[in-house]
């Protein structure tokens, strides 16, 4: 039991990028995502004595997802404080690439907004963070069969709805004219 | 990594996250050390106060000189409006008025002084 500072920092190196990719698809603001990741790590650090190293990643994921949920609730309550979404990606990619990425993110957002929270998390954790079924089981605490079937259903729905927008996300071919 | 990542390349988090976390952990460590010191000081102070409180009745013994003076004064008071006689002590009249006498009283080795 108990984790060291080195464990936590190693987890940060390992998880910052996948966490950011998932949280961004909830919050759509880079700064908020960064704050939230920091907050999640500090919260886990505060209860380090009770944290099992084997459960560290799962705990960080569930903490971050809960914080994102709270953040969205807060935003819903205080709508006047809402700020515009950040542009994803690197400005060095050029305006065209950025515009294309933005369009794709908007299409994904449109589809994900129709998902329930668990399905959305399943899609994001498996597709944007690359979590395996075992890792998803650790995060959600569901049986492996439940995770597999729910993930399958959620991904099928995602594919279908992206296709309806003219996007074949599996093959990587995009027809964003119809999505925009 | 996934089906979606081909269509939607992974995003890079803004730089500085790791440094920010290490700074926050350092700040927490400092705050925690300060808090521990404060707690230890508080504990030590409370312990000393408790011990003093428990020992107070044992430490508090009536001063024998004060007892002598008190006895002499009581005696003088009982004798009424007469000359004050103080044994094992000295008394100097400070103020005399009808119904009121004020003495300075002290204990000396020689009662005649």
How does this structure look, described?
The complex is a heterodimer of chains A (180) and B (113). With 180 residues, chain A is mainly alpha-helical. Chain A folds into 2 domains: 1-84, Rna Polymerase Sigma Factor, Chain: A (Orthogonal Bundle), CATH 1.10.1740; 95-180, Winged helix-like DNA-binding domain superfamily/Winged helix DNA-binding domain (Arc Repressor Mutant, subunit A, Orthogonal Bundle), CATH 1.10.10. Helix content of chain A is 69%, strand content 2%. Chain A has 8 helices and 2 strands; from the N terminus they run αααααααββα. Chain A has helices at residues 5-27, 30-46, 56-77, 95-112, 117-128, 133-140, 144-164, 176-179, and strands spanning 167-168, 173-174. Chain A has a two-stranded antiparallel sheet. In chain A, a hairpin with a 4-residue loop joins strand 1 (167-168) and strand 2 (173-174). Chain B has 113 residues and is α+β, with helices and mostly antiparallel strands. Chain B has 2 domains: 6-59; 64-106, no CATH class. Helices cover 57% and strands 13% of the residues of chain B. Chain B has helices at 3-7, 17-59, 64-79; strands at 90-97, 100-106. In chain B, strands 1-2 form a two-stranded antiparallel ribbon. The longest helix of chain B has 43 residues, at 17-59. Chain B is rod-shaped and about 115 Å long. The N and C termini of chain B lie far apart (107 Å). At the A-B interface, helix 1, helix 2, helix 4, helix 5 and helix 7 of A face helix 1 and helix 2 of B.
């Amino acid at each position: 039991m108990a984790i060291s500072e080195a464990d936590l920092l190693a987890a940060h190196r390992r998880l910052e990028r996948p966490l950011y990719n998932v949280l961004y698809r909830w919050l759509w603001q880079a700064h908020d995502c960064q704050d939230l990741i920091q907050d999640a790590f500090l919260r886990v650090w505060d209860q380090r004595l009770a944290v099992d190293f084997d459960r560290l990643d799962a705990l960080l994921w569930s903490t971050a997802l809960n914080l994102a949920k709270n953040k969205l609730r807060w935003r819903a309550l205080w709508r006047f404080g809402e700020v515009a979404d950040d542009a994803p990606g690197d400005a060095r990619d050029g305006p065209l690439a950025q515009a294309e990425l933005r369009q794709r993110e908007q299409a994904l957002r449109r589809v994900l907004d129709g998902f329930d929270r668990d399905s959305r998390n399943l899609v994001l954790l498996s597709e944007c963070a690359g979590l395996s079924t075992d890792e998803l089981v650790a995060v959600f605490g569901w049986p492996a069969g439940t995770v597999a079937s729910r993930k399958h259903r959620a991904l099928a729905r995602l594919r279908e709805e992206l296709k309806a927008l003219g996007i074949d996300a599996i093959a990587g071919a995009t027809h964003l004219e119809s999505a925009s | 990594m996934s089906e979606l990542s081909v269509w939607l390349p992974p995003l890079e988090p803004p730089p500085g996250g790791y440094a920010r976390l290490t700074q926050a952990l350092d700040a927490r460590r400092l705050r925690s050390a300060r808090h521990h010191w404060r707690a230890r000081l508080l504990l030590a102070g409370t312990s000393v106060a408790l011990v003093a409180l428990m020992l107070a009745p044992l430490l508090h013994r009536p001063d024998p000189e004060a007892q002598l003076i008190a006895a002499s004064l009581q005696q003088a008071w009982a004798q009424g409006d007469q000359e004050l006689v103080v044994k094992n002590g000295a008394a100097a009249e400070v103020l005399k008025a009808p119904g009121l006498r004020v003495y300075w009283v002290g204990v000396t080795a020689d009662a005649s002084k």
